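To whoever is on call:

I kicked off a structure prediction for a single chain this morning and the downstream step that reads the tokens threw a length-mismatch warning. I double-checked the sequence; it's 376 residues and nothing unusual in it as far as I can see. Pasting both halves so you can look.
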Amino acid sequence: MIVLGARPQFIKSAPIIHELLKRRAIALQIVNSGQHYDYELSQIFFDQLKLPPPALNLQVGSGSHAIQTAKAMTRIEQAILKLKPDLVLVPGDTNTTLAAALAAAKLNVPVGHIEAGARSFDMTMPEEINRRVTDHVSAVLFAPTKTTERNLRNEGIPAGRIFQVGDTIVDAVRTVLPRARKSQEALFEKIDLRERDFVLMTAHRPDNVDNPQRLRSIVNALSQISKNMRVIFPAHPRVMHNLKSRGLMRRLHFFPNITLIKPVGYVEMIALLDAASAILTDSGGLQKEAYLLGVACTTMRNSTEWPETLKARANRLVDADPEEIIHNVLDSRNAGPRMRLYDNNPFSRGGASKRIVDIISSNDEWLQEVRGIFRP
């Protein structure tokens, strides 16, 4: 069973799902928690990434972290009891990830964590809590990089349960990129856009979009950037609501170079990112995707779970400081030549999904050993 529920999980899991579907010896069950339920944040990814319909859609919906996690956990527990999987795969660090890992572990069903070992070392981030707890109840951990593997070993997790496999986001980008590039002409014509002539902007973290002072600082930075460059901002409904309720939407309308659009699918997002001169974001996944595509990234956070992007000088942390945001985004126009997707990088050159499935399906003895972790 693989349990999904949020936009980033659909993306990073798609290559694994397609690899699992190739293996006749594996019966795959997809469970969608429904943590993200708008079409633009959920179903569009099933459509674009050609994922089969889930065996169950649990319709968890939104709510506080406690309400959402508790609701997901109780419904995932019932799904596990009904479908009786041998192994529950949980990708990433969302509330769905944590809920599925806890529900499975408490039922003595082995958990496999995809993207294990990522650490921002910032315990104010809900995602950091989710990923740490998930790692420590998982039976097998698929670490994407050397750094994530080292984090797991430093926390005392036995080396025999850790597999450094690379990052499935590389597989996702490689698969989608040709389609994304074919779609660029029509997409850019629709919003009157020219390649390398704009900054791509995303924001969704509560620290940024629910905090009036920080959101105002970000809007102020965008207004200044737009005097020099076009800004394309696919805005989450929650962001739109906060911009309107706090009177910031009126300010944005004074700057015609800022274009707000509805959330886009993965093909469109990669099409925009691939053509952007820079990206301003608070997303974890986009930090990696920008790095893979050679697009300079400025991250509106004071920590990142992907320090590899900082070491490569492909990413800069600016928190919500408007001066730093403006300086870094405008400075990125002078960045050097872009790396190629297949250059050596800490996230691997691809094939992580195949390595994960090879490990899962290697032999019955391995599965028995994993079961023994919870059933000595």
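Update from on-call: the warning came from a stale cache, not from the record. Cleared it. Sanity check on the structure: The chain has a mean pLDDT of 90.
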